[in-house]
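REVIEWER CHECKLIST
Item 1: Sequence provided? yes
Item 2: Single chain? yes
Item 3: Sequence as submitted:
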Amino acid sequence: GYLGGEELASAYASADYFIYASVSETFGQVYLEAMASGTPVIAAEGGQLKEFFITGEHGYLWEPDNLDSAEEAINLAMKNRNYLSMKARQQALKHSWDAASNQLNDIYYEAIKIHHDKEKKKKKNTNKLKHIWNVFYYFIVWLFCNSLALFLMAPFVRVSSPQSIAAEKRNKNNNNNNSFEQNHNSTMTKKLSFS
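Item 4: Structure as written out by the authors:
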């Protein structure tokens, strides 16, 4: 009949081996229940055992519909029951509800950490972009203000190149010399006219 909880665990623990001939066990729960009680598993090979069962470590498997293979698996299991029992229990504990919830917590933690790291990196990149934008913005403002100032001051400022300054000095000197000569000539003319 149906057993559950402590009765089921006690039934598994009282058995020397858990022999299961069906290949239709979907989730492999009965194998884990037996292994959790320290009972080695002897079973027909099926896809449900691949996730957690290692033949020779947790029990033995036989080829479905092959009685010679089943007999060989039982004989091998009988030779090292204590070792199989210990390893079966250790493996089952890795798949207990506590272990499953810890694994789920680890997965959630990793997902949150990855999301947090992505957000942090995104924020860092956003800050870099903001900094670059600010530098560009202030440069444009500076350029505009200086251009505006030059435009407004241009009518009042006379800008000369070194060549034009030198030419201007020459012209001034020539004008001074010419006016000196004119003054000198007119003074000489006056002197001559009085003499």
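Item 5: Key structural point noted by reviewer: Residues 96-172 form one domain.
Item 6: Recommendation: ____
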